[in-house]
Each structure stands twice: as C-alpha cells, then as structure tokens.
From TrEMBL:
Molecular function GO labels: DNA-binding transcription factor activity; transcription cis-regulatory region binding
Alphabetical list of InterPro entries matching this protein: HTH_LacI, LacI/GalR-like_sensor, Lambda_DNA-bd_dom_sf, Peripla_BP_I
UniProt domain HTH lacI-type: residue ranges: 2-56
Biological source species: Bifidobacterium reuteri DSM 23975
Keywords attached to this entry: DNA-binding, Transcription, Transcription regulation
Name of the protein this chain belongs to: Putative LacI-type transcriptional regulator
Record Pfam families: LacI (PF00356), Peripla_BP_3 (PF13377)
Transmembrane helix in keyword set: no
Length: 344
C-alpha cells in the first residue's frame, strides 16, 4: 500500500507539500498540486479524511438548515446546487431539519458546542431573530444566507428580490386593466417565519406605488384552518375568495403550490380563470408549467450554487468583493392571466 512519502518521491516534492496539496490548501501552486494529484492517482493513494481533518483542523463538513420537509422542491433544488459546488472540493453536506420553533431555537442553543463539527453553514429561507444572527457572527463560523431575512448579520448572502418581483406582478396586472387586486397567503404556513411571508408586505408596497387609489384585499390564513388538512384549507381559502363582497379581478398567491390548489377549488365553485379572475403564483414550481400558471420564476438551484461559492471563498479565508448577491425573479405569463373583466 502506497504511503504519503511514496507520493512525494513520485511527484518530486516533500511529504508536507503532498499533504497540503491533497488537503486543498492555497499555499500550493496549481502546477505542483497537479503533479501530486497525478502521482497519487497512479499509486492509488487516498489521504485519510480523518487524518486530514486532524492535521488541518477542518471537518470538511458544511451544515445546511432546513424547515421540516427536505424533499420539497425548493429544498431539494438547494441541496443539488450546493452539492454541485462543494463535492469537487471534498466537502460533505450535512442537512439538518427543524420542524417547529422549539427545534429551531434548540438548534441555535446547542450551536456553541456543535459548531466545532462544521466548517461552514448555509441558511436557506429562514428569518432569524437578532440573537440567533448575532450568535452565528460571534462564533466566527463562515455562514451564508440563502434568501434568509437575517442577511445583514451574516458574512454573505444570496437574496431573491421579492420586492421587485411583486412590483413586476402588480404592474403586469395593471397593464391588463386590473385595479381590484388581492393577495393570498399560504393557508397552511410553516410554523416559523420564512422569506416568502414578506411577499405580502411587498405586494402592498407595490399596490401603493402603482395603484395608489386602490384598496387591495389580503386573504390570510386563519386559526380555523389550523386543524384542517392542507386540501381543506385550500378549499376554505377558495371559498373566501369566491364569496368576497368585493371580489378581486386578480390575485397574487404566495406560492405556486398554493395557487394551483386554490385555482382547482375556485373552478369547482364556478369561477372561470382567467375570464373572471386572473391568478399569478410565485416560484415557477414544476406544477406551474402543467397548470399553465402565470408565475414569478426563481431558480433555487442557481441561487444555492452562488451561496456555496461564497461559502467556499469564506472557508478559504478570502475576502468577498461583494457580500450580498441579489437575484431577480422573472415574470412568466401563461394561461391564468387576461384582461380585467370590465375590459372584455
């Protein structure tokens, strides 16, 4: 079995250089690193992960915190984007799931003892309170916010421009002649604050700017929906929209998944879409394509790649030229929007 010294002899360098090259340290010239990698490959030599970690003080682990369902479209896309970026550099991704506020606060309470088991941290979509954000900063763990609303206290962030997205949606509907526009929150929200919750406020800002004399209607989740199944809550929300005294001619819905489900129930109630009611979702989830849903497209896999690139630079001790990367959502018109009924 080949040793690190055998690789050093084959590459014509010192044992220490082999160790540094195989651990990805920046102090090795690219040409030298390639010599070492080629020699190690010929000799079928692999540097022990545990030995490398002991020598470098690195765990080669990055923790990513998720809310409840890791297999959701957004979370799975984020994992894919981060893995694409981190795996070639030898890092393992450790997903951690929290399903309620108690678990979320517990994760941060345990962080001072568990933080030594990670080299970096990626936080997708959560909205942290000031104490949790400050804790991450005080521990000097390289951390990147991925559309998380505590970005100002983290070393770097990749943010979706939800504000501009909602402005684009309202302007698009205004051009179609809509003035009575509503916003629909997800009827079964997550148990802790997420970045999508902020879309309602950005919608209201856009309405004040674009249609200042209009009175937007907000259809929010209510306590009676807590005990309902998700489908029952979607049906209840559709009923509220359909029976509204001043029913809007268009609605913006917090997510595509909610929009598609509510749209199905609205049609069952005799609401014609888009003739009676135009609908815009958010995400460009795969179901949006099938349903022909007009939506605001985001690419969480691309955003996750950007976040992982930022984290790699931070873990290697580099200074970022830009600490905040803002990504724009794109309006995708499909079959669920049309001119306001009064114009037809």
């Amino acid at each position: 079995m080949a040793t690190i010294h055998d690789v050093a002899i084959a590459a014509g360098v010192s044992d220490a250089t082999v160790s540094r090259a195989l651990r990805g340290m920046n102090s090795v010239r690219p040409t030298t690193r390639q010599l070492v990698l080629d020699a190690a490959r010929r000799l079928d030599f692999t540097l022990s992960r545990s030995a490398s970690s002991l020598a470098s003080g690195k765990t080669m682990r990055v923790v990513m915190l998720f809310g409840c369902t890791i297999a959701s479209w957004f979370n799975a896309s984020c994992i894919e984007g981060v893995l694409e970026t981190l795996e070639p550099h030898g890092y393992d991704l450790v997903p951690v799931r929290v399903c309620d506020l108690e678990q979320l606060h517990g994760f941060f309470a345990d962080l001072p003892s568990n933080g030594r088991n990670m080299d970096g941290f990626i936080l997708p979509s959560f909205s942290l309170d000031d104490s949790e954000s400050a804790l991450l900063s005080s521990m000097h763990i390289p951390a990147v916010a991925l559309d998380a609303r505590s970005a100002s206290r983290l070393p770097a962030s990749v943010m979706l421009d939800n504000k501009r997205a909602m402005n684009d949606a309202v302007r698009f509907l205004r051009r179609l002649g809509h003035r009575r526009i509503g916003y629909v929150a997800h009827p079964k929200p997550a148990p802790f604050p997420a970045s999508s919750y902020l879309r309602k406020d950005f919608f209201l800002d856009a309405m004040r700017e674009c249609i200042p004399d209009a009175e937007p209607v907000v259809f929010a989740s209510s306590s009676d929906m807590d005990a309902m199944s998700e489908d029952e809550a979607m049906a209840a929300m559709a009923g509220r929209i359909a029976s509204s005294e001043h029913r809007p001619t268009a609605i913006c819905v917090e997510t595509d998944e909610a929009a598609v489900a509510i749209m199905r129930h609205l049609r069952q109630l005799g609401i014609h879409i888009p003739e009676d009611l135009s609908i815009i979702g958010f995400d460009d989830h795969p179901t949006a394509v099938v349903a022909g849903l007009t939506t605001l497209h985001q690419d969480p896999q691309h955003m996750a790649r950007l976040a992982a690139q930022q984290l790699l630079a931070l873990m290697q001790g580099e200074t970022l030229n830009e600490t905040v990367t803002t990504v724009r959502a794109t309006l995708i018109p499909r079959a669920t929007t049309a001119a306001a009924p009064a114009l037809q």
